[in-house]
Write a structure and sequence with these properties.
It contains 16 helices and ten strands. The chain is mainly alpha-helical. It has a domain of 328 residues: Glycosyltransferase, CATH 1.50.10.10. The strands form four sheets. It has a three-stranded antiparallel sheet with strand order 3-4-7. Strands 8-9-10 form a three-stranded antiparallel sheet. A hairpin with a 6-residue loop joins strand 9 and strand 10. It is globular and about 50 Å long.
Length: 476
Amino acid sequence: MRRPRVEVPGTVPLLDSPMPAADDPVLRRGAARVLYANWTGTSTVPSRGLYPHQWSWDSAFIAIGLRHLSARRAQRELETLLGAQWADGRVPHIVFNPAVPLDAYFPSPDFWRSSRDGAAAGAPADRETSGIVQPPVHALAAWLVHLADPEASRRRNFLPRVYGRLKAWHDYLTGPRDLGGGGLAAILHPWEPGMDNSPCWDAPLRRIEPAAAGSYRRADLDHGAAAERPTDLDYGRYVRLATDYRDGGYADAGTRHPFAVEDPGVNALLIVSEHALARIAAETGADPAPHEERAGRLTAALVERLWSPDDGMFLCRDLVGGELIAERSVAGLLPLIVPGLPRDLVDALVRTAAGPGFRLGEIPMVPSYDLTAPVFDASRYWRGPAWFNTGWLLERGLRGHGRTGAADRLRGSMLTAAGACGFAEYVDPFTAQARGTRDFGWTAALSLDLLARDPAEEDASHGAVGSGLRTRSPVH
């Protein structure tokens, strides 16, 4: 699976900058300001301009940080999203705000036509959503939100009210979405793993005939530089895939899908959330054993189907061709968050993360794609820039596996970068210069979480899931 490398110029990292203190009031106030400004009354938009609706995994990450401001509001964030769940269990990747004009975002509700074309799959009749999904961070978020104020959570019956929905969500991913038959969830569109135009999708997308350029209008270019966004060719292929999925009634099993991939990041998050669901089950009086058993089966399948010893990391599997995709993205490092991952795999992942492809601990942020690959791009969406949610997951995984020194350094550099870039959507991994939109929801939220958590008080044996978590006082 190895490929030729290219040399990347060295940089002066931000790691020499003073690490922000856990009680840094300026950074905390700035992060809180972003979340308050992006709150709509029932949920939080990722940004007011570029992303004016509710996004699925954004809301999960936002709730994780929002709990430090208001546990009640964080609960509401997740309840609003889960209120748009389809009857087949899927949690849609966008829940549309009917007050937002149709031309503010594309694909808009009149493109997805969920209440009509998704009726057979159980789309809600009273609200419009997209028909695809995003990574399942939600059970982990719900458990962490509960831990922020367990007494208030129990008074509101928060966990009993979301447990059934979260279980149905996982049943969907491990049932109709097990398209490879090997026990892992599959993605059907590059938007589903959240890493929209990763080089991992280049080869599978070559099979897709793009939609005609004049058949849609890219609203994203109204708010972002073209050099930092997906190309028109890729975007046309995204539109084609979404159109065909919609016109097929959003059916999963029993349908031929020209794009079908098993992604290690998606499945790692499913495993961690399954462990969290076991804790939610125990808290609500249900049996946690089926969730722990499923987490174990998923972990075994992840290792069997997606581990590449030659690369020292996990790779995506193309279910159409059947082979592993020889592209090294940050998704292949995210299984570090999985508790119980074999020690030799953890060691290999840490070596790969610290090696020339990702330079963990050497540059300010972990890039989204292999720095030494010919197609690496430090500015273009998911083809190289660093993101705060993947950094947060890696920090958590390192800490959960006892790599506290590396976790501390990553935490410090992420907080320094967040304050310097104005809570940007993503950043240049070498300089932490802002890319994408500013005042981005999960950047602010996860900065709050990193500030509020005391790493020394983490329970290392369960750090990847979050049991034993203690937090500082909420920001008011």
